Amino acid sequence: MTKTLGDFADENRPRRVHPDVVGKVAELIERSGINIEDIGRLDKVIIGDYQAITKDADGEAQTHNLSKSHIVLTPTWDLGPEWPVIQQAAPVTIKPPKVPTKKAKSKAGWKTAVILPDPQIGFRRLSDGPDGLDPFHDEAAMDVAIQVLAAHEQDCGVDAVVNLGDFLDLQQQGKYLQEASFAMTTQPAIDRGHRFLAEQRAAAPNAEIVLIEGNHDRRMQNFVTINAQAAFGLKRANVPDSWPVMSLPYLLRCDELNVIYIDSWPAGEYWLNDKLRCIHGNKVRSGGSTANAQVKDNPHISTIFGHVHRIEAHYKTVHDRSGPIRSLALSPGCLCRVDGAVPSVNGSTDVHGMPATHWEDWQQGVSVVRYNDTEFFVETHQIVDGRTIVGGQVFQATL
Fold first, then answer.
1. In this model, does residue 3 exceed pLDDT 70?
2. DSSP class of residue 37?
3. Looking at the chain, which residues constitute the CATH 3.60.21 domain(s)?
4. Cβ neighbours of residue 365 under 8 Å, at least 6 residues apart?
5. pLDDT by residue (tens digit) across 215-269?
6. Which fold has domain 108-396?
7. What is the value of pTM for the model shown?
8. 289 CB-contact burial (10 Å; exposed 0-12 / middle 13-18 / buried 19+)
9. What pLDDT score was predicted for residue 17?
């Protein structure tokens, strides 16, 4: 009787196989010279017995008992590896995420702060007249910063504008070598500084505008103390609570613009929430590592700082018993010129008093902070040649 593989075993419910059948299959495979290790799958087995009749020499019928075997095999190399093969990811269809509307954003309790770093407003006087003033600050970068501020005011409203210090350069009041071209440049710098604050107030009329004193801004107080100590602290008549007349908040008309002046560099600081403060700073480390030094010294708080004129950011996570403590130290860069115009240890002038072109390792930028009482997120936008991109929108200086 002829039998097939289905008579011996079912894929889902194995059956008993007669030992004689197994023996015949093994014998046939061995006789065929097939290595048992090369067999991946036994696809089909036919084993049967039958009789054949022949005539002998005398013409008598002779019965012969015969058998036949038929095996279909699949070799191991056709089955592939025994483990799953890495393949392309299955294709998926993703619907665009829903973006919160501006109205929804305003209800979420998030505030917005725009951070403006180190413009170092000042001039060289290269010739007589207003056109003879060569600025240290970068008018194009400052113009773009005001555009970014105005755009955020229109988008979601700006709650705070923080000037990180070194607002004025005050090179005439500095302790370093004085250039002849510094003469009579303090008043134009004060006038331009006031206008920059007025531009901020016009762009964000309801924001709290803060000006943190930097080491260059401190030069005015130091200059008066060293050279005219009798004039230190003098105020207008009958206004005892006003700023001294030889102080930057008075000269810049901060009170008239409702600008908060935070003095006492390097101790002055402004807190956006309990975890994030803004300072001018007094550390400078090489190779972009000032942010690392800030985090190392203050691992449990986050700091946005100026002073170094480089865009830097360093994130750190430590933990206490209650969980992770994530901190950040960030410098948005500067808004002054980066081509050697600002007096520095690496810059110089020629025999005519003109600044030599020297590309400093400085970067211009502006930062935007989204924050509430307990959290914050920071975006920093580099300004290159009077242009930046924020949220897909190009901001170009219009000077």
1. no
2. G
3. 108-396
4. 117, 311, 332, 333, 334, 380, 381, 382, 383, 388
5. 999 999 999 999 989 888 899 998 888 999 999 999 999 999 999 999 999 999 9
6. Purple Acid Phosphatase; chain A, domain 2 (3.60.21)
7. 0.77
8. middle
9. 55
Which residue, 388, 34, 89, is CA-closest to 397? 388
Each residue's pLDDT tens digit, 92-104: 787 877 766 665 5
What is the CB neighbour count within 10 angstroms for residue 244?
A: 18
The two three-digit tokens of residue 141, written as one number: 């970068």
Kindly list the strands in the beta sheet with 323-332, ordered across the sheet, starting from the edge strand earlier in the chain.
269-273, 276-279, 302-305, 323-332, 311-320
Own/partner long-range contacts of 28-31 (Cβ < 8 Å, ≥24 apart): 28/69, 28/71, 29/71
Beta strand segments in 56-122, E = 61-75, 111-116
* 184 phi/psi in degrees, rounded to 5: 55, 45
Q: What is the token pair recorded at 91?
A: 């294709």
Rounded CA-CA distance 396/317 in Å is 37
Q: What is d(CA 127, CA 130) in angstroms, rounded to the nearest whole number? A: 9
Residues 249 and 271: their CA atoms lie apart, in Å, by 20
